[in-house]
Amino acid sequence: MTSRKAWRSKGLLSVVALAGTLLAAACGGGGGTSNKTKATFAELPGSAPNYILPLAKLQYFSVANLTQFQFLMYRPLYWFGKDGTVQLNDSLSLANAPQYSADGKSVTITLKNYKWSDGTPVTSRDVEFWQNLVTANKANWAGYSPGEYPDNVVSTTVNSPTSITFNLSQAYGSYFFTYNELSQVSPLPQHVWDKTSASGAVGDYDKTSDGAQAVYKFLDQEAMSVGTYNTNPLWQVVDGPWKLKSIDTTGNVKFVPNPQYSGPVKPKLAEFDEVPFTAESAEFNLLKGGPNQPNSVDYGYIPYSDAMQKTQITNLGYRFEPWTGWEVSYFPENFTNPTSGPIFSQLYFRQAMQLLVDQSTYINKAYNGYSYPTYGPVPVRPTSSFVSSFEKSNPYPFNVNAAVALLQQHGWTVNPGGVDTCTSPGTAPNQCGQGIAAGAQASFHLEYANGQASFDQMMTQFKTDFSKAGIQINLSSNTFNTVIGNAIPCQAGKPCTWDMEFWGVWVYSPDYYPTGDLLWATGAGSNSNGYSDPNADQLISATETSNSLQAMYQYEDYLAKNLPVVWMPTPYLQLSAINSNLQGVDPQDPLANLYPENWSWSS
């Protein structure tokens, strides 16, 4: 998945300073010879791309759809990720560095000389088209957080075909607005997409709110039809280094170079393919056949449960490289569920749940050591100055007895191995809490992404540990895409029964400063569980206006204690196994971006 928010005027860190705080990923080697002209990348189990429109809803807001699919064809206005660090990459951006007015209330963007694949220039009209669609359809966009982008852009001024000015609601610092607002902008081909039906003519519909909503409705409907991507003329016009050759509904994706790509690095490969797997075991069996077999995977992964076999894999001609991500891991509890939501809304109950999470055991047994603890909302790797000492201190170490005591102190009759029951309803400090009726049971359904043995092992241990305190966890698994699609807040008039969903990790992209406003601010677009806390909202807002890292520390310390979600250990993005002859892959990008245009085969 992906995230948001940062510095205003007089921000503490410059762009250069931020880059200096993050560690580059380790470089790998290569060697040998190869006559291959294409390369294959293994998709994670059940996470095939299934949405092509950059204006993505929450159920499609994933690494599989954004950084490893859409970004190959549709470049964001500003590119982030450089040499294995989290920083602005000027050379790969579609525009020159943004220019802010002296009062900080406007920013002017000047586009470079990029073209769409049909030869039409990328212009300020394409930026305006994006802006109009986002503004009129923000409620459908997973990147939306109330009061922030696009709300804080009160108007746009098109100065020329290559220049556009965003007029802002207040003064902002350039670091904040570049890294966490302009980072969200993706020029769209207005000359192709500004229509309301497949047979309709292209117009300027986006210039009215009703028109922009009609255009979005049409594009969204088309984007949900993966089976038509190959022939739909909408998706044939791109500005990225790659064009879609073919895709099927199981996730087989083939890209070919875009000959009109205007960026500094043109693809060297004749084709780049992404290959689906229903389970990681199937991918690993293919790896074990070696890199020279037919249909081999050139850039794959070793399952965590098989990490001890890495030497066997490297001896076949792969190099082993753990891929560190700018990410955290957690699962949300559904605060909006009418039955379980009132229970999850009680801090003591969330504290009891967190006390039952045995992160060290998960790390050692499920991940074979290739994971690290998560105790709060800020990534601890790559190394940065953003992580507080409190977040790293583990506020809720695994302790079954402490969890049991908390529940008993708040009106629950604890039944280890069975199901706890609320026997003292009410809102007094020693009672169950508001909205929890007498006889309510601590029994919940947890759905998690399937296809990964590490998840199966971790969830089984999770269920066992929770049962020791009488919290019954009923497990089921489904595809990654299904799990993230289910994890949305309940809506009036629609059935909503999910309790907890676990998909893996959240990668902080396309907002790169990890303040969590997209995730846990009230009403935020990716606030999947409906968490709402006035103190959290205030602290999140302060991270955008303060001149000091103390605001970040206060925010993350509060969420480490207040538990908007259940924190889980964070694994690497994957344990990569890369064909030793494949060059240009390193360093792996912590934002989960792929750069197949850099790849080539040694000769």
Structure notes:
The chain is an alpha+beta fold. The strands form 9 sheets. It has a 4-stranded mixed β-sheet, with no helix packed on it. A 4-stranded antiparallel β-sheet has the order 4-5-7-6, with helices on one face. A hairpin with a 5-residue loop joins strand 4 and strand 5 (106-110). It starts with 14 loop residues before the first helix and ends with a strand. The model is unreliable at 1-33 (pLDDT under 50).
Q: Short summary of the structure?
A:
The protein is an alpha+beta fold and 603 residues long. The strands form nine sheets. It has a four-stranded mixed β-sheet, with no helix packed on it.
Q: How would you write the strand order of the largest sheet? A: 1-10-9-8
Report helical residue fraction: 10-25%
* DSSP E strands, number: 25
Count of domains: 2
Per the principal axes of the C-alpha atoms, what is the gross shape?
globular
Instruction: Tell me the radius of gyration.
Output: 24 Å
In DSSP terms (H or I, runs of 4 or more residues), the helix count works out at 17
What name is given to the CATH topology of the largest domain?
Dipeptide-binding Protein, domain 3
- Specify the CATH architecture of the largest domain: Roll
Structural category is alpha+beta
Q: Would you tell me the overall average pLDDT?
A: 91
Q: Unreliable stretches, pLDDT < 50, 5 or more residues?
A: 1-33
CATH class of the largest domain: Alpha Beta
> How would a crystallographer describe the biggest sheet?
4 strands, mixed
Q: What is the CA-CA span between the terminal residues?
A: 37 Å
